[in-house]
Write a structure and sequence with these properties.
CATH superfamily: START domain
Pfam families: AHSA1
Protein name: SRPBCC domain-containing protein
CATH class: Alpha Beta
Order of helices and strands: EHHEEEEEEH
Number of helices: 3
InterPro entries: ASHA1/2-like_C, START-like_dom_sf
CATH topology: Alpha-D-Glucose-1,6-Bisphosphate, Chain A, domain 4
Family: Belongs to the AHA1 family.
Domain Activator of Hsp90 ATPase homologue 1/2-like C-terminal: 12-141
């Protein structure tokens, strides 16, 4: 298994950043790599329970991911499971994401830990995807 760790310092208050990584209306503005949008979702990380999103790229390809929000600890962290669906809507390997927020000299630090990724290409793909998504978030903040 592979783990991914990414940190970003942002010039916003920690509670503001936490709202951007948990509330549906904010998530929909940056969720997914650059060039995708989310036409279908149940994307609410303010409460525990199931979630899913369908990301669509410019060529019309759709990518579904789903999981379960495992914990919400405002304004410090939110955790959720993550599993991609195949073309027959079967959910694959499950990994776990934790988004943590803490105060920093700049304002707030976002710490993304994506654990238990399948070995090999999955880690690289997730790093590219999360890095691109976080660029979108940084541009909004």
């Amino acid at each position: 298994m592979t783990d991914l760790h990414i940190e970003r310092d942002l010039a916003v208050a920690p509670d503001t950043l936490f709202a951007w990584v948990t509330r549906t209306e904010n998530l929909l503005r940056w969720w997914g790599p650059e060039g995708v949008h989310v036409p279908d979702h149940e994307l609410d990380f303010t409460r525990t329970g199931p979630w899913f999103s369908v990301m669509e790229n410019g060529e019309g390809q759709r990518f579904k991911v789903s999981g379960h929000v495992t914990h919400v600890d405002p304004p410090r962290s939110v955790g959720f499971t993550w599993g991609w669906h195949d073309d027959d809507d079967r959910r694959g390997h499950e990994s776990h994401v934790t988004l943590s927020v803490e105060a920093s000299d700049k304002g707030a630090r976002l710490i993304l830990d994506h654990r238990d990724l399948a070995d090999g290409e999955a880690g690289d793909n997730h790093e590219r995807g999360w890095t691109s998504s976080l660029r979108r978030l940084e541009a909004l903040l």
